[in-house]
Design goal:
The structure is a single chain. With about 50 residues, the chain is mainly alpha-helical. It has one domain. It is about 75% helix and about 0% strand.
C-alpha cells in the first residue's frame, strides 16, 4: 500500500469532510479576528505585544 493511500484512509477515518470544512472556517475566523484587532489597535494581542 503506498503511503498516500494510508494517509487518505487515516484522515478520512478521523475527520469527516464536514468536520474538516468547519475546522477551516473556524481557523479563517480566527485569522480575520487577528487582522481586525491588529488594524484597530496596532498590537497583535492588545496589552501584551
Amino acid at each position: 500500500m503506498p503511503i498516500s493511500d494510508f494517509l487518505k484512509e487515516t484522515i478520512n477515518d478521523c475527520m469527516t469532510n464536514k468536520a474538516e470544512s468547519l475546522n477551516g472556517r473556524i481557523a479563517m475566523v480566527g485569522i480575520l479576528a487577528l487582522m481586525v484587532t491588529y488594524l484597530a489597535t496596532g498590537d497583535i494581542i492588545p496589552g501584551v505585544f
